[in-house]
Each structure stands twice: as C-alpha cells, then as structure tokens.
C-alpha cells in the first residue's frame, strides 16, 4: 500500500473513525483502524462490535492494499504532522509515514485478526436533515435510563408512522419526546442506544442529509462518504402515550431563561447536600421558586401568564432543568394536573413538536 493525501483530509477521516473506538473495550484488536486503499480511494473502518464506521475520500494511489493501525497512535501522529501532503507506504508490517521533514516508522497491527464488517442492503427507509437529527438527539438522550434492569429503557425509542418520526426516552422520572415529519410513508420501530445517537451527532456535517436504514438488529446512518451503523436494543418499549393525555388544571407561560436562572439559584443552597428539591408556588401572575436546606434558603419570584388553578408543587430540580435547557425557544408552556400529577413542558411555539413530562415530588400535607 502506498498513498499520498493531505494532512487535514486524513485527520478528518481518522477523527470520524475514532467515534467507534471504545476506551472500555478489552480487546486490543478493536483499538485499530483498518486502512483500505482501492480504486483511488482511501477507506477507513473502525468498530467496537456495537458501533461500526466506514468513511472514505479520494487520494493519490501508488499501490493498493490494506493495513491495520493503532487508532491512538495514528491519530496522534497525523495530528502533529504539518498541514501538507502526507506520504504513507506499507511494506508488510512496517509502515513509513512522512510529511515535509517529519518521518515516522511504526509497526502495523495483525490485520488477519480484525473482525469482518457487517454488510447491509443499500436501502434507505427515510431521510432526515442533519439539524433535525441533532436536535432530536439532544432533546431525548439525556432522559434515557442508565443501567436499568429494563434494558429497553436504556435506549431511545424511534417510531415511524404516518410520515412522522418520534424520538422518545424515559427513565421512570421523566419522558422526553421529539417528533418531526418525513416524506417517506413507512411503519417501523427500533430502540437505539443513546451513545450511538450522540456519536453520530458529533460527526454529521452541517447542512447534510442523512439516510436512515432500519434493518434487523441494526440501524444504519449514511451521509456524504460515511456509513455509521449501530446495534439496536431488542425488546418492546413501554407504552407511554397515555401519560401525555390529561386535562390540565393549571397552565403557565413563562420565560424559559428566567425559570432556569431561578432554579439554578435554588441549587446553590444544595451544594453541601444531596437533596435538590425545588418548589413552585403558582398564583395569578407569578411563580414563587423556593429552595431550602440547613445552610440557607432561596425565594425568587418570576412573572408568568396563568390559566386555571393556583398550585404548590415540588420537583427534583435536576429533572426540570435538563428539560428546560434542551429547549431553544424563549418562552415555554407548562401544564400541571394537580400537586400529585405530572407536569408537561413544551415550547410556546406550536411548530416545535417537543414534549417533556416530569413527575413531581410529593410533600407532606403540612408543607402545602
């Protein structure tokens, strides 16, 4: 194998490939990136057996071939090379790398031990704009459970029906749901690990269109010259839809940033403690946000627009904050179903189909 390629182009491919290299993997062969040179193209492949990435670019080819290189080593080498043409020559296990006056001689890994890559039928189920994929990921993955014995809750449920896609995550305390429209009319369900969605969000180029294929056991995302595949979680997701359908007793419209700031001020009181309870007392024109602990207390009043009953209700501040921070709009609508019922947070803009449900913390009767 013998090629010439610009340093920035090679580094871009390596950075994409690193997303499928897991630091937790105990199998040394999976610490490698497979370089394949064929038909005037350089293709890099990487996998940790959960994620798999294949990404390509054109290059100057003197000789075709393959080589497996330690991901950390080749990444550090290329990162430190001058921003100029890079020459790579492979002679069996010996690899020579040069750019300007910098010359490296390294030893390749055993390519014959590297796992076979999965092959999939090249059929896209639907297309999604890069910005929508990133927003749907950001607004849901944080609500997925972590190491729950109900394995399905450790993933994001993706459901496609009637030209609509729902991304949903829940952990028993809250539910995050982002929906958007697509042109394709298909019906499919799949549960995708949050790590996979997070990693692909980091490498999809701005403005690109992503093709999504859902096949047995895998989800495949294709964009530009990259194929990103992940294993999916087997099982049936919980039926959460009934939780969103209730007649609210109180509805509040509030400036999102004002509410975030008030809750974060309340959290200062809890720095020395494990608790992070925040209470809202809602009257005709304001919310009184309160936090208290052994070291002090906070009372903060925020102006609101209100419909319905007055209310006092308490929440874990972490759950409320995380939902508010994923919303980009200036104002949110929050509906309540009494002091023991869930509250639902949505952007005031009805064109943004995002719903965040969070359960309250019940107080002693004397505290209401």
Summarize the structure.
With about 375 residues, the chain is of the alpha+beta class.
Tell me what you see in this structure:
- The chain is α+β, with helices and mostly antiparallel strands and 368 residues long.
- The protein folds into three domains: 2-107, DNA Polymerase III, subunit A, domain 2 (DNA Polymerase III, Chain A, domain 2); 126-240, DNA Polymerase III, Chain A, domain 2; 246-361, DNA Polymerase III, subunit A, domain 2 (DNA Polymerase III, Chain A, domain 2).
- The protein has helices at residues 7-17, 71-80, 130-138, 194-203, 256-268, 317-325; strands at 2-6, 32-38, 41-47, 51-58, 60-63, 65-70, 85-91, 94-99, 102-107, 126-129, 156-161, 164-170, 174-181, 188-192, 209-215, 218-223, 226-231, 250-255, 277-282, 286-293, 296-303, 305-308, 311-316, 331-336, 343-347, 354-358.
- A nine-stranded antiparallel beta sheet has the order 14-11-12-13-26-25-24-18-22. The protein has an eight-stranded antiparallel beta sheet with strand order 6-2-3-4-17-16-15-10.
- A hairpin with a 3-residue loop joins strand 12 and strand 13.
- Helix 3 (130-138) packs antiparallel against helix 4 and helix 5 (256-268) packs antiparallel against helix 6 (317-325).
- The radius of gyration is 25 Å and the shape is elongated.
